[in-house]
Design goal:
Structural class: mainly beta
Order of helices and strands: HEHEEEEEEEEEEEEEHEEEEHEEEEEEE
Number of strands: 25
CATH superfamily: TolB, C-terminal domain
Strand order of the largest sheet: 2-25-24-23
Strand content: 35-45%
Oligomer: single chain
Number of helices: 4
CATH class: Mainly Beta
Number of domains: 1
Helix content: under 10%
CATH topology: Neuraminidase
Distance between the termini: 45 Å
Radius of gyration: 20 Å
Shape: globular
CATH architecture: 6 Propeller
Length: 367
């Protein structure tokens, strides 16, 4: 089969994935309130993962999980990407630098699992490398065609969320660009632009967490989003409105200092990330909640973190909670939070612990 035929088949599959049953324009969606419930009503402690101490992890910069519970750990301090089994046993170290041998300063900042066991890594300069499960180079580029603020993988497709243009108005459009695992550009999908473009230019929320892939396609967020937004226009989508949601009234003013800009960002609720908690359940992370949502017993006055969960096909009503832990990853019914470095019996300091929590769907779930 020729390369042209391969690309053609991928285009047809991509259209089937994203646009079957979809319309050409956004449809009005129903909005449901997501009342706040106790954290332990939605998430139960499952276990603690102790990463193999034969591999030193300086800090978990980015964490991804697959269906088997394997952990893909990006260590920005150590400049490495390591695969651990769900038990914490080390399986493999990936070597993205060998795919771009002239870029000795390439330091992975994030890495995600993709189809057929592939791994996609990205650095702060938007250099992207795709590796097979056994660490062979599949695709590599020193510069993507666009700046992007996040990416996710679904099977053989990579979805890159293009960085918002500061000159866009609320009626303008951004896009999600689709690539193959070989980093061939397949499609540019227009999406709704940010309501507050200046806000979204300097602040990005959780790095590379502004988009995630679900069974019905990718969902993305802007900092002012009430809920994650689907790339596909689904007339049946129900949006959630967390109880702690306080809409930002206006964009960041023009021509102000960075200090004033940071103060403006912290003044209102900020939507920081979207996670695929399951293939049909989205989890959205919020920062800068109002003072009354401060978690009891947490010494950090600035730690006011909100989480909302909603099912993409309406199997249970949306719920929100105030989280005492920071989610670093989510998937296949669990959330993962990096803990302190483990003290070893010989007195040395080991790797960061990873705390795993099981998602509990609301009790009034339908079926």
């Amino acid at each position: 089969m020729t390369d042209q035929h391969v690309v053609g088949r991928r285009q047809l599959l991509l259209k089937a994935v994203l646009f079957v049953g979809c319309t050409d324009a956004p449809q009005r969606s129903q909005t449901l309130d997501a009342p706040v419930v106790p954290f332990d009503e939605l998430f139960a402690p499952a276990d603690t993962v102790r990463l193999d101490s034969s591999i030193i992890i300086g800090a978990i910069m980015f964490l991804d999980v697959n269906q088997e519970g394997d952990l893909l750990v990006t260590d920005f301090i150590g400049g490495s990407v390591n695969l651990f089994a769900s038990s914490g046993e080390h399986s493999r170290t990936y070597s993205p630098r060998k795919c771009l041998p002239d870029d000795e300063d390439l330091t992975p900042y994030s890495a995600r699992f993709a189809g057929k066991g592939h791994v996609v890594t990205k650095d702060l300069e938007s250099r992207v490398v795709v590796l097979t499960a056994d660490d062979r180079c599949v695709g590599a580029t020193r510069r993507m065609l666009h700046r992007f603020k996040g990416f996710c993988a679904s099977g053989d497709f990579l979805f890159f969320f293009v960085w918002p243009d500061p000159y866009l108005t609320s009626s303008s459009y951004n896009s999600v660009v689709v690539y193959s695992l070989e980093l061939q550009s397949l499609r540019d999908i227009p999406v709704e632009g940010p309501k507050f473009p200046r806000l979204n230019l300097p602040f990005v929320g959780m790095w590379d967490r502004s988009i995630d892939c679900f069974g019905d396609g990718p969902y993305f967020t802007y900092l002012e989003s009430m809920d994650a937004i689907p790339v596909r226009f689904d007339a049946q989508l129900t949006q959630q409105r967390p109880e702690f949601c306080s809409p930002r009234p206006q964009d960041i003013p023009r021509n102000i200092s960075r200090e004033a800009m940071t103060a403006e960002w912290q003044e209102y609720l900020s939507t920081n990330a979207v996670f695929a908690l399951t293939s049909q359940t989205r989890m959205v992370l919020y920062k800068n909640l109002a003072d009354r949502w401060q978690v009891e017993g947490v010494e950090d006055d600035g730690f006011r973190l909100g989480i909302s969960v909603a099912n993409n096909v309406g199997r249970f009503p949306p719920r929100s909670t105030i989280s005492p832990v920071w989610p670093d990853a989510a998937g296949y019914g669990y959330i993962y939070s990096g803990g302190d470095h483990e003290p070893l019996p010989n007195g040395d300091v080991g790797n960061p612990l990873i705390l795993r929590y099981r998602f509990i769907p609301p009790q009034d779930a339908d079926g």
